[in-house]
């Protein structure tokens, strides 16, 4: 009898020490992403959360090869076929990655659509350009849209319908990864819920979803995994229920305390300037220590932000308490 082995789950995307910095005039360096190490797995929704300006969108742009000319990258971002998104030429990124391997859900579905053409015309164009395997009606049904609604112009679509069209467009090239950067900006709470639920449904087809958001409540609703980013670093990552239910890093606790159900306690102070991180890390060990030096029981970290891991969870810099 032969042993039956469970199939290995392959990560669809693996980030190794991904770093991005921007070179500004007069030798100033902006450290936007520092040593990010993350995995996207089929069937899972990874929420990347953190305050405005911590580097979430820069990380997304790095994965899509859409960084501006003054950006420098280090590390790697490997697709399951070995393609390194940081090293691939633009011809590969444009022809094989964007839309085909990674579908992008825009920040604002309604403004993303061309106003003078029906949803169907735009979807058909995307399917043809990406040589997608599904027709427009099939994609519409897949995202819970009545195919007849594809014949509407964008201004005739409700917010929820526009979101569904945007997701259908992102799925047109049948990508295994969906990347959504702040897809709920400006939406009311019920539509936020419907939008993230729709993304979570996309993950159930063995896709991976990377949901970038500063809406922790939305992340909690659908994420299977959470990565918390602060001042360019992922400071804590792991299964969503564990990270959000029992945070290890004080920054994660602080983000949760700022939610209505956490008591609306704003995080004191401000994140540091991303041009100052080298100096702050040298002085304080970790940048979050510098923000909250007066917190009771707060022992500043020393040395580099070494990773502490237990099972699927890990944090940087702060020992789990
Ligand atoms: N081309 C650039 N040159 C210099 N700095 C840049 C450039 N692009 C982005 N940055 C800086 O990188 C940092 C990270 O920005 P990013 O947009 O990734 O933040 P974010 O976490 O996505 O915030 P938000 O939640 O507001 O979208 C910011 O301080 C931003 O000013
Ligand atoms: Ni610290």
From TrEMBL:
**One of the protein's GO biological processes:** peptide transport
Q: Which reaction does it catalyse?
A: Ni(2+)(out) + ATP + H2O = Ni(2+)(in) + ADP + phosphate + H(+)
Intracellular or extracellular location(s): Cell membrane
Q: What is its EC number?
A: 7.2.2.11
UniProt KW keywords = ATP-binding, Cell membrane, Ion transport, Membrane, Nickel, Nickel transport, Nucleotide-binding, Translocase, Transport
Gene Ontology MF term list: ABC-type nickel transporter activity; ATP binding; ATP hydrolysis activity
Broadest EC class?
Answer: translocase
PROSITE patterns for the chain: ABC_TRANSPORTER_1, ABC_TRANSPORTER_2
Domain named ABC transporter: residues: 15-256
Its membrane topology is listed as: Peripheral membrane protein
GO CC terms in record: plasma membrane
Q: What is its main location?
A: membrane
Q: Which InterPro entries match?
A: AAA+_ATPase, ABC_Ni/Peptide_Import, ABC_transporter-like_ATP-bd, ABC_transporter-like_CS, Oligopep_ABC_C, P-loop_NTPase
* Protein family membership: Belongs to the ABC transporter superfamily.
The subunit structure is:
The complex is composed of two ATP-binding proteins (NikD and NikE), two transmembrane proteins (NikB and NikC) and a solute-binding protein (NikA).
What PANTHER family is this protein classified in?
A: NICKEL ABC TRANSPORTER, ATP-BINDING PROTEIN (PTHR43297:SF13), OLIGOPEPTIDE TRANSPORT ATP-BINDING PROTEIN APPD (PTHR43297)
Q: What is this protein called?
A: Nickel import system ATP-binding protein NikD
Organism name: Saccharopolyspora dendranthemae
- Organism lineage: Bacteria, Bacillati, Actinomycetota, Actinomycetes, Pseudonocardiales
């Amino acid at each position: 009898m032969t042993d039956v082995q469970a199939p290995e789950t392959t990560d669809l995307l693996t980030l190794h020490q991904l770093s991005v910095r921007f070179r500004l005039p007069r030798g100033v360096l902006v450290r936007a992403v520092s040593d990010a190490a993350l995995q996207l797995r089929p069937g899972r929704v990874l929420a990347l959360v953190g305050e405005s300006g911590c580097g979430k969108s820069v990380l997304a742009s790095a994965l899509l090869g859409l960084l501006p000319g003054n950006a420098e990258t280090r590390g790697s971002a490997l697709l399951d076929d070995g393609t390194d998104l940081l090293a691939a030429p633009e011809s590969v990124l444009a022809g094989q990655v964007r839309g085909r391997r990674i579908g992008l859900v825009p920040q604002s579905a309604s403004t993303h659509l061309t106003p003078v053409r029906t949803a169907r015309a735009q979807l058909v164009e995307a399917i043809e350009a990406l040589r997608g395997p599904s027709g427009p009606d099939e994609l519409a049904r897949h995202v819970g849209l009545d195919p007849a609604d594809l014949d509407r112009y964008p201004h005739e679509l409700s917010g929820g319908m526009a979101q569904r069209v945007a997701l259908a467009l992102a799925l047109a090239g049948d990508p295994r990864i969906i990347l959504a950067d702040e897809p709920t900006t400006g939406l009311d709470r019920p539509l936020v819920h419907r939008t993230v639920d729709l993304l979570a449904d996309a993950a159930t087809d063995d896709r991976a979803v990377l949901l970038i958001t500063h809406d922790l409540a939305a992340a909690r609703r659908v994420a299977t995994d959470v990565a918390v980013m602060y001042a360019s670093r992922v400071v804590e990552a792991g299964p969503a229920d564990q990270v959000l239910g029992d945070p290890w890093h004080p920054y994660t606790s602080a983000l949760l305390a700022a939610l209505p159900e956490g008591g609306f306690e704003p995080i004191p102070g401000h994140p540091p300037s991303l041009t100052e991180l080298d100096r702050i890390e040298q002085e304080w060990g970790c940048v979050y220590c510098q923000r909250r030096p007066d917190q009771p029981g707060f022992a500043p970290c020393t040395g580099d932000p070494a990773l502490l891991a237990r099972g699927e969870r890990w944090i940087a810099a702060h020992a789990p308490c």
